Structures are given as C-alpha cells and as structure tokens.
Amino acid sequence: MSAHIANGRFVVWITLFIGMMFQIMPLPHIVAAWRPDWLLMVMIYWAVALPHRYSILTAWLLGVMLDVLLGATLGVRGLAFALTIYIVVLHFQRLRNFPRWQQTILVSVFVCIYHLVIYWTEFAIVGGTPFNTDMFLPAFSSLIIWWWIFWFLRNIRRRYKVR
After folding, report:
1. Distances (CA, A) of 81 to 4, 29, 43, 84, 115
2. Which end of the chain is more exposed for a tag (fewer CB within 10 A), N or C?
3. Residue-wise pLDDT tens for the chain (163 aa)?
4. Total structural domains within the chain
5. pTM higher than 0.90 for the full model?
C-alpha cells in the first residue's frame, strides 16, 4: 500500500472517485441540466498530466461504472469517455503548453464531443432520441469550472508528488 501512496496512484484514484461522486450527486431540477462533467474534467486533467498511466482504458472503465451507477445503456458513457480521452491523449503535449484560457476552451470542446458521442450512440442503439441543445449546457458550466479544477488537481499533484 505504501508503494501506491509513494507514487500517488492512490491519490489519483481518490480524485477520480470524488469526481464520480460529484457526477452522480443529485441536484435540483432547475440546475441539473447545467451540471458540469466533473468526472470527465478530472480524467482530462490526469490524461494530460500522466498520459502513460491514466488514459483510454481508465476512461472506458470509469465510463462503464458511470453507466452502471446512472442506470443508463451499458457502454455508452464508456465509449464516449474512451473516444474523448483518446483525442486528449493524442494531443496531450500541445494541451500542456497551451495557455490556460485555450485549455479551458478545449475542455469545453471535449465536453461537447463527449455529449455528441453519447447522443449518437443512444440514437443508434435506442433510436428516436430527439436532438436537444440542452445537452451542451454542461460545456458552459465546465468552461467556468475548469480553472479551479486544474488549480486544485495541480496542487494535489505537487503536494503528493504524483508521478
């Protein structure tokens, strides 16, 4: 156990667990449509910071777990997480070097991609799912929150020397 704490794996999994809890936390109906994609943003941070350790397989597993917790069609969020994190990992070196405001815009684009993949797979599997522009509302709230998530996770990474 001390080996996991020493290189920070335990700390990363705790942050992913907290992101999962924020993702499934019940919200009042009036603000539920604006819920930021907490787990996706935490996963994006770790995929950019440590792409060799937390990438597509981790994203797929977390997405399937989220499907189970939400009672959704199994594998839809797993696919959406995996495709989104695949794009992030492809460009992680560029994303690291972008200014924070550009990273924020790209995180919002990644959230949009995530929701479009969910819509596309639900439409292909279930069929007849109506297109609703409200699915892009989390992109706006994620745009606002990314600065704080990045700052918080970077401080955790530095404090616990996550490598």
Report:
1. 25, 25, 9, 5, 10
2. N
3. 555 555 789 999 999 999 999 999 999 999 999 999 999 999 999 999 999 999 999 999 999 999 999 998 899 999 999 999 999 999 999 999 999 999 999 999 999 999 999 999 988 887 777 888 888 999 999 999 999 999 999 999 999 999 8
4. 1
5. yes
